[in-house]
Amino acid sequence: MARRVAYSGDAPITLEDVAQQCRVEVEDLEPELIEHVIIPGVVAQAEGRTGAAIRPAEYSEEWPEQYASGHALDIGQATEILSVQRVAADGSAVELDVPRYLEQGQRESFLHFPNGRPAGVLRIRYKAGVDPAAYPGARLWLLMSAATAYEFRETMVAGTILAELPSTFLDALLAEIEVPARF
Q1: Mean pLDDT per 10-residue segment, the chain (183 residues)
Q2: Residue 46, C-beta contacts closer than 8 angstroms, at least 6 positions apart
């Protein structure tokens, strides 16, 4: 499983975007709540549902020897391979300068080694992050989820009739970037 090393870009939605979606003025919102709780929370939800990187970040994953050239990276929406290292038995890593290319599919990204995959366990470091202009449904999902989280800040709602939008509508907004299940 890939591990996020560090974010490398801004969240795909802003305080101003959330204010517009909530139909309120920015001054009427709680910036700390929106920027440090709600936006990171809905980004995490989208990443968990899709398996794709929503906010640009750097990731690291290890490939066991049985992963061949052309294997899919764990995180969808990869944009750049930063490094490939061979991991020794003692845990140390050696940088490999081998020909490679990233195949970017709509949902998955694949790492190819044209001259054959290097032997041993590999540590792959890469950047990933969805392009909100290319996938407007993902951005809309984030905005709708942020507005809902702002309106209903607790996990329980009492005294209000609350109905969820049809899952077919909501799921379709993220379907373009959802990484297929792998067994």
Answers
A1: 94 96 92 94 92 96 97 96 97 96 94 97 97 92 93 70 70 81 71
A2: 52, 54, 138, 141, 142, 145, 174
Identity of the residue numbered 121: V
Residue 26's φ and ψ, nearest 5 degrees, are -55, -40
* Contact (CB, 8 A) for 54 and 10: no
What is the pTM assigned to this prediction?
Answer: 0.86
Cα–Cα distance, 171 to 102 (Å, whole number): 27
What is the C-alpha to C-alpha distance for residues 23 and 97, in angstroms, rounded to an integer?
A: 52
The DSSP bridge partners found for residue 126 are 59, 81
Would you kindly state where each structural domain of the chain is located, as residue ranges? Answer: 1-183
